[in-house]
Amino acid sequence: MDRKQRSMENLEIENIFGGIYKDKACLVTGHTGFKGSWLSYWLSLIGAKVYGISLSPPTQPNHYDLLNYKIKSYIQDINDLNSTEKIIRKINPEIIFHLAAQPLVRLSYEDPIISLTTNILGTANILESARKIPNLKAIVIVTSDKCYENKEWVWGYRENEAMGGKDPYSASKGCAEIVTFAYRNSFFDKPGSAIIASVRAGNVIGGGDWAKDRILTDIITSASKEKHVYLRFPEATRPWQYVLEPLSGYLTLGWQLLEGKRSFADAWNFGPNNESNVTVMELVYEASKHWDKIKFDFDKGPHQHEAGFLMLDSSKANKLLHWRPVWDFNTTVKHTVNWYKVYYESGKLLTDEILRAYIADAKQKHIPWSLT
To answer: Which residue blocks in the chain are alpha helix, DSSP H?
Structure first.
């Protein structure tokens, strides 16, 4: 593709999501993390003025540093209300995507206080700071599918199901939802105030995640060292989805909030299609088709509790936001493994190429957010 063609493609990409993000001041908390780095990069690509508040990148290597793109970054702990509030006031964003969190179940057992503090009080600190930003129009609070009281049902949880949590991580995410609901109804319920929504995604995979104790990351890291990965819960079923799937949902929802649609100030699920709800074992088998270095064995434990079956019902987002997944399970795994395989074998990043392919596939399927 020559420079003129690339320039025309970039102009077209800027017009997805109704062109709403072009020149908008967008704050992403947790921008140095896995999902945050992908979201920040996508926002930059579609012409937003992107700012980030986060701790330093959590791993080496990490997706944020490897991308090396322009963003106004503030390294700040969101548990410090005064400092966080000063930074947000300085940025004066029009929309906040709050992703900063302690994201790991197993770590929440090792250090429950930091998980509870960051995921509950940190969320409250962002919402409290947002009360004082006159330019702010919208807030998207990102929690987790694990916010639901898990009853091991074989059907998906809907947004009106009870919050719960048998482990500190899940409890912290359920509480973050309750805090968001309380702030929305107590302080952001007047005409002219920012519109708040919360979002819950499935088990997100994709290139650039090196967080400890995530199954795909464990698979890839072991393969890169030509070692076996040890599976703790091979029969556990999860809603696997490529990282761009929930992000397209967050951006679609943000679009509606920025247009002032208060009826969208609610909780939303962005999960994969039912056929992507498969076991860890099936995930590993599929991944091994794309990289022959992937080998596995079983770790019989004992292990701390993790949910055996978890699934989301995204009917609400499908019907009201006209959002739906772009890639099926096999495509999701293929793009994930290829990202790492290419990185480890050549040092090349496929992030931009994969993002553009995802947008092109969404256009081909006539998904509304992708149409210009």
So the answer is: 3-14, 34-45, 63-67, 81-91, 105-110, 112-116, 122-130, 168-187, 215-224, 244-258, 280-288, 315-320, 329-346, 351-364
**Which pLDDT value is given to residue 103?**
84
Answer yes or no: are the C-beta atoms of 243 and 205 closer than 8 Å. Answer: yes
Residue type at position 247 = L
Asked whether the beta carbons of 132 and 242 are under 8 A apart, the reply is no
The CB-side HSE value for 112 (13 A sphere, CA atoms) comes to: 8
* Residue 138 bridge partners (DSSP): 95, 195
Q: What are phi and psi of 49, to 5 degrees?
A: -90, 105
Judge whether 141 and 266 are in contact, CB under 8 Å. no
| List of domains in the chain | 3-370 (3.40.50.720)
pTM for this prediction = 0.94
Strand partners, 141: 98, 198
Token pair of 118 as six digits: 């960051």
User: Beta-carbon neighbour count of residue 184 at 10 Å?
Assistant: 22
Given pLDDT bands bounded at 50, 70 and 90, which one contains residue 234?
Answer: confident
Distant-in-sequence, close-in-space partners of 166: CB < 8 Å, separation ≥ 6: 150, 305
Q: What is the pLDDT of residues 241-300, one digit of tens each?
A: 999 999 999 999 999 999 999 999 999 999 999 888 889 899 999 999 999 999 988 776
DSSP-based three-state secondary structure for 52: strand
**Percentage of the residues of the chain whose pLDDT score is greater than 70:** 94
CA distances from 304 to 146, 214, 301, 307 (A): 15, 15, 9, 10
Q: How many angstroms separate the CA atoms of 337 and 3, rounded?
A: 29
Q: pLDDT tens digits, residue range 65-117?
A: 999 988 999 999 999 999 999 999 999 999 999 999 998 888 899 999 999 99
Q: How far, in whole angstroms, is CA 57 from its chain's centroid?
A: 16
Cα–Cα dist 252/249, whole Å: 5
Give the whole-angstrom CA distance, residue 367 versus residue 372. Answer: 11
- R_g over Cα of the chain: 20
